[in-house]
Amino acid sequence: MNMNWQHLTLLVLLTGSNQFVYAGDAQRGKVLHDENCTKCHISLVGGDGTGIYVREDRRIDSYSALYNQVKRCKTSLGVPWPEHQIEDVISYLNTKFYKFDVPNKKADD
Ligand code: HEC
Questions:
Q1: Which pTM does this prediction carry?
Q2: Residue 104: which pLDDT band, with cuts at 50, 70 and 90?
Q3: Given Cys at both, which of 37, 51, 85, 99 links 45, Cβ 3.0 to 4.6 Å?
Q4: What integer pLDDT is reported at residue 1 of this predicted model?
């Protein structure tokens, strides 16, 4: 019995809100993104780098593809981000640029 309450409390803490769907926070994600993710992209496409997300021949065509690309780029960046920060950045990118339907569970489960 007690355990159930602990789990529920933990879940609420982890999602940071009463929303149990995908937990990314787009505003936190934008800060992380702008501090960490623009340098390479600017060298590729110029401007502020966000052109890479809307380029004609972009390869990202689904939410799970976006998820996997962000993980790849995060790895080449070498930052030790926990899952929730990855989700924040994905949430930012998806809200601002990609606008895919958000699945209820993680794309690589
Ligand atoms: C080490 C350089 C580098 C860093 C740092 C980097 N990226 Fe990338 N990113 C790339 C390259 C190169 C591509 C293009 C890959 C391709 O064309 O297949 C790319 C492409 C992408 C795309 C797909 C764009 C499209 O075609 O729609 C996303 C999304 C992305 N990066 C997210 C991120 C995020 C989020 C971060 C920060 C965690 C990040 N990147 C940091 C090099 C980098």
A1: 0.81
A2: confident
A3: 51
A4: 54
